[in-house]
Amino acid sequence: MKIIPYGRQWVDASDIREVIKVLKSDWLTQGPKIKEFEDALCKYTGAKYAVAVSSGTAALHIACLAAGIKSGDEVITSPITFVASANSILYCGGTPVFADIQKDTVNIDPEEIRKKISPNTKAIIPVHFAGHPCDLEEISLIAQKHNLLVIEDAAHALGAEYKNTKIGSCKYSDMAIFSFHPVKSITTGEGGTILTNNEEIFKKLLIFRNHGIAKEKAELMNKNEGPWFYEMQELGFNYRITDIQATLGISQLKKINSFISDRREIAKFYNKSFKGNNYFDIPVEREYVFSAYHLYPIRVKDKFKVQKKEIFNKMRDSGLGIQVHYIPVYLQPFYKKLGYKIKICPKAEDFYEKEISIPMYPSLKDTQIKFVVKEILKIFKNYE
Ligand SMILES: Cc1ncc(COP(=O)(O)O)c(C=O)c1O
After folding, report:
1. Could you tell me the distance, in angstroms and rounded to a whole number, from the CA of residue 186 to the centre of ligand 1?
2. What are the domain boundaries of the chain?
């Protein structure tokens, strides 16, 4: 039986043609395609600067470094996210502080952020869960009031809009990061980027991406050594993206509008098919946002909570490659070892017990979408 996954890439002949051209060119990495990809990302989002890197995780890591996160600093983030959002804080020696979610959007709740602010708070990492933007205006006001930086984890949200502004524009934040993993809005295999409007942050990001090394004369401490000269000014990393990946990204970005509109069409069909059902709740889209629908997370009603595992297994058995997004980060053994306790965020834990991500990706065929709807309703009907 061929499984229908919860998400997957769409790579076509034009993407493959472009990648082949790069493979035959002089530059496999550190060549012109990286800047071209970064320029295209800036043009699309409206941000001034982009730094493309090897993954969304690398993007988060150097975003936190550029924000100056260090030992003793607290950073507030959501528990309903991939572990990378919080791990990036730990990489810098900082302490992740988890603020509970809003019940409808599943995004970090600004009210809960307010409760978690301490004299040690340095930044907020809101995560646009499933491609639905967070309340950025409110988060930005909190940040201004308490002198905090905002790093948007927009791994799910390339193509989304908040109050008619593209996510990634950084209108309400200091930085935003995207991931280009195959299940995301566009793919480069592995890959990611940081967007910012702040030139100083941009320069730091460039240095952290490449071993902490500066080469441009204007950036050097010793300016007159010679044309070979480079200086390692920080402890950086090799987080470079290749020209092969960047080319795929350029080609994919040209198709972003149709990718997102396909996702939204599928969401519309699911919404219509599942409206008013007695088994599970469907995702909401607030009227001032335009969701990228990275995921379509359903939540079983309270009465089905105890049977969720069984229902999940039945769905898998019927060929649906469903998944659960996410286990609250602080419930992971590593975080428990650090001292995080159960019930820090009760709404997040309740969400985890109910959530199932059903197939959502642009190349899903009509017959597959109808099959998904039919199978899910059939499985729940057996539990009535
Ligand atoms: C919310 C979130 N943040 C960060 C990441 C990390 O991105 P990557 O897999 O490109 O390192 C992911 C990836 O799944 C994610 O879902």
Report:
1. 13
2. 4-253, 256-381
CATH superfamily of 256-381: Aspartate Aminotransferase, domain 1 (3.90.1150.10)
Radius of gyration, CA atoms only, the chain: 21
Residue 54: CB within 6 Å of ligand 1?
no
User: Are 79 and 329 a contacting pair, CB within 8 Å?
Assistant: yes
User: Closest Cα to residue 143, out of 127, 129, 131, 125?
Assistant: 125
Counting ligand 1 atoms within 8 A of each CB, the residue from 181, 324, 329 with the most, and so the one to mutate, is 181
Residues 6+ apart with CB under 8 A from 264: 291, 293
Give the other-Cβ count within 10 Å of 232's Cβ: 12
pLDDT averaged over consecutive 10-residue blocks of the chain (384 residues)? 95 98 98 98 98 98 98 98 98 98 98 98 98 98 98 98 98 98 98 98 98 93 91 97 98 98 98 97 98 98 96 97 98 98 98 98 97 98 90
Instruction: Establish whether residue 153 lines the binding site of ligand 1, counting it when its CB lies within 6 angstroms of any ligand atom.
Output: yes
In the CATH hierarchy, which top-level class contains the domain 4-253? alpha beta
Give me the count of residues in the chain: 384
How remote is the CA of residue 57 from the centroid of ligand 1, in Å?
Answer: 6
Give pLDDT tens digits for 164-177: 999 999 999 999 99
Number of C-alpha atoms within 13 angstroms, CB side, residue 363?
A: 14
CA–CA dist 138, 292 (Å, integer): 21
Place of tokens 């499933």: 130
Long-range contacts of 329-333 (CB under 8 A, 24+ apart): 329/79, 329/81, 329/83, 329/85, 329/86, 329/96, 329/98, 330/79, 330/86, 330/96, 330/98, 332/83
CA-based nearest residue to 82, from 153, 147, 166: 153
